[in-house]
Each structure stands twice: as C-alpha cells, then as structure tokens.
Description:
The structure is a single chain. This protein has 2 domains: about 5-120 and about 130-245, Rhomboid-like (Rhomboid-like fold), CATH 1.20.1540.10; about 255-325, no CATH class. About 60% of the residues lie in helices and about 5% in strands. The chain contains 13 helices and 6 strands. The protein has a two-stranded antiparallel sheet. Strands 2-3 form a two-stranded antiparallel ribbon. A two-stranded antiparallel sheet has the order 5-6. The chain starts with a helix and ends with a helix.
Amino acid sequence: MNMPPVTKNIIIINILMLLAKVVAVRYGLDFDDLLGLHFFLASDFRLYQFFTYMFVHGNLSHLFFNMFAVWMFGRIMEQVMGSRRFLFYYIVCGVGAGLIQEGAQYAEYLYNGYDAYESVNLDGMLMPMSTFLNRWTTVGASGAVYGILLSFGMTFPEERMFIIPFPFPIKAKWFVLGYAVIELMSAMSGRADNVAHMAHLGGMLFGWLLLHHWRKGGGLGGGRFFGGGLGGDSYGGGNYYTRYEDVTNAEPAHPSVWQRMKQWWAQRRKPKMHVHTGTKHADDMQWRQQKQQREAEVDRILQKVKQGGYQSLTEEEKRTLFDASQK
C-alpha cells in the first residue's frame, strides 16, 4: 500500500499487541494492567507505562479508529517530516498525552479529597483506596493520534476534507479546531464516559509545542537527527521540518575520530578523481545534474501540493514524492 515505514510499523505493532492481549488473557495476564498507564500514586504504576500504554487498546473498535487515523494522516505527515522526525513526534505526543492525563487524574484526586480516605464506597461496596486507584488506567494511541491530526492541520490548513456526515468539504484547520473544542467541552462536562479527553488534548498540546519549537529552528543535534523529510517553505509547512536534501548530504559538524580515520584511509587507498567535462571522467558532473533535476521535480510537486493538496497529485507524482522520502 506504499505506506512509509514508521506508519506501517506503528499499525503492525498495535495489531500484534491486540492479538497478544487476547492470547495473554488465557494465561491470566492482563495487558491493560501490565502495560496500561496507571495513576502515578497507585501501587501498579511503572515509569515505562508512559511508553507502553499507547500500544495497548481496549477492543477492536478502539484499535480500528486509531489506526485508521494513523494510516490516513500519519503516512502523509511521515512523508513530510521524514521517518525519524515523525517517530519522535509520535512518541512525544503520546508521552505528553500521558503526562496531561496524570495531571488531570491528580486534580480529581485532590478535588474529591481521596487522600483523606482509606476506602471508597462503590455501589454499596467498600473498596480499598489502593485498589480503587489501580483502576485508573489509560490505554490507547489516541493522544499520539490527536497530535498527528494537529500536525496535519497546521501543515495543510487550507486542505479541504469530506467528513461524514457533512455533505460539504471542511478545511483542515477547522476540522482540527473542532475536534479540540469537542474534547475540551467533553472534559469539562465531567461525564464518566471512559474516554481520556484530557489525554487527547495533551497530545495536541505537546504536538503544538514541538511544532512551534521546530518552527523557531530548534532541534536536537542541529536538526540532523530528525532529517529525512520533504517539508520546507515550498511545502506550506514554514520551518517546521528539515529539508531532505540538506540533511542527507550534510557532513557532520564535528566528525568523530573513527570517521576521520576512515576518511584518511580512503584518501590513502584511492587516488583523487578530477572531473573533466566532456571526457570519460564526467560521471560525477552528470550525477550532480541529475540530482539537481530530481530536486527541481520534487520542488515542483511540493508546490503543487501546497496549491491543490496532496490529492491533486498524479500517481506518478505521488510515487516520486514517496521515493524521494525513502532515500
């Protein structure tokens, strides 16, 4: 299906985790309890749960809708950001969603005064407070998914989308804003619907903070760690993402001792090549010309996406864009 590697692997891992969860139940193992994110004051809380909870889902429908959104929007954003940067963004949004959810649960804990009680009355039955707090468990990739939705809306704000049941197209920026408002209103309503609305908002918040940081030119290692994307001014993304060609062809600012040794050994073993146009040694010049032509073609396609959206591309142009993101 021509899915980028990170998007494809996220979907595969989540599907395998649901299958493993079904099998584990037969052996008395509860993945929600082991890998789900517990309230940090609960006895079953573990630090690793901030990462594992986003790969565990409650049921098939929960998994389907999250992975459908990853497939629909994640594959586009991975082509724009590049695989490593997209993976980092996904994890940050997921962990950030977990942190906000923990904060919301702690506020509820203080508001209800649970710290003053040793047990809770649930439906006429007394439950020890330790057992009650261990039931506050969050699972699912929804926080990271909402971060992906935000990145799509910020990168392609004018992209028109058809959303069921509306019979008219909606711009991506209003689609994302509408989701944020719905989640905020749901969180403030106080209804017990077993949906982590604050985690959804947390994923969007941390996604916005990270995109804002990238827009200002920030990034670990001068942005080289996250390279591989096709984003840039011509793609409508401002300075959110590092250009593909700038990262892959850049030399490290401070090469390691091992890299310097390899360079020295290569220079000792191989004579220097002198390029003379019009001779058999012009291969390097021809390669540079071909590279410039490919870059010009990619820039043209990105400009077309900016003006008409991703769906305006032909199959050949989509394939060219996808191939460029994989190199």
